[in-house]
Amino acid sequence: MEEGKRAVGRLCSICSQRRPALKRPKTLEQICRECFYAVFEEEIHRVIMENHLFKAGERIAVAASGGKDSTVLAYVLSELNRRHDYGLDLFLLSVDEGITGYRDDSLETVKRNEIQYGLPLKVVSYKDLYGWTMDEIVKVIGLKNNCTFCGVFRRQALDRGAALLKVDKLVTGHNADDMAETVLLNILRGDIARLSRCTFIMTGEDGPIPRCKPFKYTYEKEIYAYFKKLDYFSTECIYSPNAYRGFAREFIKDLERIRPQAILDIIRSGEDFRISSSTRMPDQGTCERCGYISSQKLCKACVLLEGLNRGLPKLGISRTREAINGSERLHKTGRLPKAEAERPILQSKPCGNLEF
Amino acid sequence: MQLTLEFGGGLDLLCQSVKIHHVDVTPNVENGKLTLRDLLSWVRTSLIKERPEMFMKGDSVRPGILVLVNDCDWELCGGHDTELEEKDVVVFISTLHGG
Predict the structure, then answer these.
(1) Which of B62, B69, B67, B72 is nearest to B97 (CA)?
(2) Residues in domain tRNA(Ile)-lysidine/2-thiocytidine synthase N-terminal (chain A) (predicted)?
C-alpha cells in the first residue's frame, strides 16, 4: 500500500532502495523487510560463530514451545545450518506440561513445525516423568505457586528429554528482553549466584547437557517482526499470574520506549558484575533420589514431588530451607532454626513461555 | 472510515477473543482526519470490553505493544500523529507475555 507516503519518503538505510518497514531498536536504523531478514539472520550467525556455540557433528535440541521465540529459533537455526554448513543434527524438544487448552494447542504448532522444517520432534510430558499433569497439580495447590512447580519441572524435563535424544546441547529461545528482565529480578531478589550466571550465553558446560541462548542479544521486537512470516502459537498460559516478573517486564518495556539501548546495557551490567569472593556460592552436587544436579540433598523437583505425593504441596515452595532437610528437622525439633533460613533454591519461572 | 484492526499476543482476549475486526470509525468532524491517537481512544471506548489497562497506559498503548500500520512499524510512520486512510490495516501485538 502507500506506506511509503507515511514513511516520510525515506528509504531503507541499508539498501537505499526500498521503503523502510521497521525501526531497529538496537541501532535505530530504519530498514526494509528484506534487509531486516538478512541482517537478523546474519547477526545470529555472528553470535554463534563468535561464541563458538556449536561444533560440527553435534546433535542439538531446540527447546520448542510453539511460541514465537522457539519457532523463530528453530527456523533460523535450520536455515543457518544449511547455509553455513554447520554440520549440526537438529531436533525439536517439547515439554507437555498437561495444561488443557494451552499446551495441547501449542504442541500442535510444534508438530507442524516438525514437518515444515523437517526436524525430528520429541515430546516429554510431566505426566510420564512425574505422574502429575499441571492441571492436576493446580487442582491440588491452586493458582498461587503453580509457576514454581511448572518452572522446576520444565527445567528438568528438558534435560531428561535432551538425554533421551542423546543431544550434545540444548538451545533455548531466551531473548535480550528476557535476559534483561532476569538480571533485574536477580538483583531484586539478591540472588547473587544466579545474577553471576544469568547472562552467560552458555551454561552447564561441565554438566551432561550444556544450554545456550543464541538470541541473547536479539530484541524481542525483532523476533516478532521476523516471525510474522512463520507459523506460531500465541496465547497466554491460562495459569500464569506471575506478577513480580510481570512488573520487571513492564519496567523493561518502559525503559525500551525511552531508550531502546537500555536492554543491552542491563545485560552488559549483568555481565560486568564482579561477585565478591566472600560471597558464599552454593556447591553443586547431585540429588540423592534421582541423580539430577542439585545443591541440596534432594533436587527441587523431588522435593516438590514429595510434597504433592504426600499431600503437603507447600513443601519446598517457601523461601526458607524447608526442603526435606528442613522438614525432617522440623519433625524432630518442632521448629526450623533461624540460621537455616537460606537463599531460595529454586528458580521461580513464569509459565507459558520459554523460561526454562 | 473503513479499517481493519488486528489484535495479537493475547490482546484479542480484551475484545471478546476476536482477533480481526472490520470497523467503521468516524473521522474528526473538524478536519475530516483520523489519527492513530484518535483510533486508540476509539478502540478503548468501543472495542475493548475488559481490562483496558492491558492495552493503554496514559494516552498511549502500553509499552511492549507493537503497532503496525499496513505492516509498517508505527514509529516510522509518525507514531500517534499517523494519519489513517481508508482501508488501512492496523495491527496491535502484545509482547508482554512469554512466547
Answers:
(1) B62
(2) 60-236
Chain A residues touching B70 at Cβ < 8 A? 1-3, 6
Cell of A207: 554438566
Q: What is the pLDDT of residue A352?
A: 35
Average pLDDT over residues A314-336: 51
Q: What is the pLDDT of residue A216?
A: 96
Residue in A182, A234, A238, A245 to test binding to B, most B beta-carbons within 10 Å: A234
Mean per-residue pLDDT of chain A:
83
Of the options 3.90.360.10, 2.40.400.10, 3.40.50.300, 3.40.50.620, the CATH number for the domain spanning A37-272? 3.40.50.620
Residue corresponding to grid cell 546441547: A169
Please tell me the predicted confidence (pLDDT) of residue A134: 92
Instruction: Kindly list the domain boundaries of chain A, sorted by start residue.
Output: 1-31, 37-272, 286-340
Give the closest-approach CA distance of B51 to chain A in angstroms.
Answer: 15
Contact at CB, B99 and A65, closer than 8 angstroms: yes
Q: Find the CB nearest A257 among B63, B83, B96.
A: B63
Which chain B residues are within 8 Å of A11, Cβ to Cβ? none
Confidence of residue B90 (pLDDT cuts 50, 70, 90): very high
Residue of A224, A227, A250, A258 best to disrupt the B interface, most CBs of B under 10 A: A224
What would the pLDDT profile of B24-47 be if each residue is shown by its tens digit? 999 988 888 999 999 999 999 999
CA distance A330 to A315: 12
pLDDT in tens, A128-185: 999 999 999 999 988 888 888 888 999 899 999 999 999 999 999 999 999 999 999 9
* Confidence tier at A331 by pLDDT (50, 70, 90): very low
Chain A: give the shortest CA distance to residue B16, in Å.
Answer: 14
User: Which residues are within 8 A (CB) of A275 and not within 5 positions of it... i.e. 6 or more apart?
Assistant: A192, A195, A196, A281
In DSSP notation, B1-51 reads -EEEEEEETTGGGGGTT-SEEEEE-PPPTTTS--BHHHHHHHHHHHT--S-
Domain ranges of chain B: 2-94
Residue A265: CB atoms within 10 A of its CB come to 13
CATH topology of domain B2-94: Ubiquitin-like (UB roll) (3.10.20)
